């Protein structure tokens, strides 16, 4: 697995060992960032970060900052290894996403771009909970990218769906605030 574009394009990334993490494939990341366009200066939040590939891709393409959140020790270890090997600085949190979002709201944090890529088996159930929790941490023109299996999509009902693409069984939905 590699960084697809930006100043770190072509550099290798490690993924946590085992089957618990499913990194977003390079071709899907490439297509996603083509759709998103410039992320220059964006404050990025990568939830269920896994290897950190989405947040790292955004940093490689000019994002100002990134916070990468995952509850798995193996994922957090892989993220830290990737950041260190690429010489990147980002906030890494080993925490459940709902707890992180609660704290971010209390701290009045704001993000311009949020990646939400939970384990596919959990995606459909997480939609309602995360939809409401995301709203307070979104900057006025923020975008939220939700990745899930097309057969059990992640739906963020309190946000506005602005784009939807399918890549095999992977469904990418891009939301904006209401």
Can you describe what's shown?
With 178 residues, the chain is α/β, with parallel strands linked by helices. Helix content is 33%, strand content 27%. The chain has 5 helices and 7 strands; from the N terminus they run αβαβαβαβαβββ. Strands 3-2-1-4-5-7-6 form a 7-stranded mixed sheet, sandwiched between helices. Helix 4 (97-106) packs parallel to helix 5. The model has no long low-confidence stretch (mean pLDDT 93).
Outline of this structure?
The chain is built from five helices and seven strands. 43% of the residues are buried. α2 links the parallel β1 and β2 (65-70).
Blueprint of the fold:
Layout: H1 26-36, E1 43-47, H2 53-60, E2 65-70, H3 73-86, E3 91-94, H4 97-106, E4 111-116, H5 120-134, E5 138-149, E6 160-167, E7 170-176
Parallel strand pairs: 1-2, 1-4, 2-3, 4-5
Antiparallel strand pairs: 5-7, 6-7
Helix pairs in contact: 4-5
């Amino acid at each position: 697995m590699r960084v697809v574009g930006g100043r770190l394009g072509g550099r290798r990334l490690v993924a946590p060992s085992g089957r618990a993490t499913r990194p977003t494939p390079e071709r899907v990341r490439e297509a996603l960032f083509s759709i998103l366009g410039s992320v220059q200066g964006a404050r990025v939040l990568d939830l269920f970060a896994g290897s950190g590939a989405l947040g790292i891709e955004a940093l490689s393409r000019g994002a100002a900052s990134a916070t990468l959140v995952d509850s798995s020790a193996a994922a957090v270890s892989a993220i830290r290894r990737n950041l260190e090997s690429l010489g990147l600085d980002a906030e890494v949190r080993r925490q459940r996403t709902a707890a992180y979002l609660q704290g971010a709201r209390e701290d009045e944090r704001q993000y311009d771009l949020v990646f939400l890529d939970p384990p596919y088996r959990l995606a459909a159930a997480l939609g309602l909970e995360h939809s409401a929790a995301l709203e307070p941490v979104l900057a006025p023109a923020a975008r939220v990218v939700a990745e899930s299996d097309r057969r059990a999509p992640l739906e963020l009902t309190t946000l506005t769906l602005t784009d939807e693409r399918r890549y095999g069984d992977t469904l990418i939905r891009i939301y904006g605030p209401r």
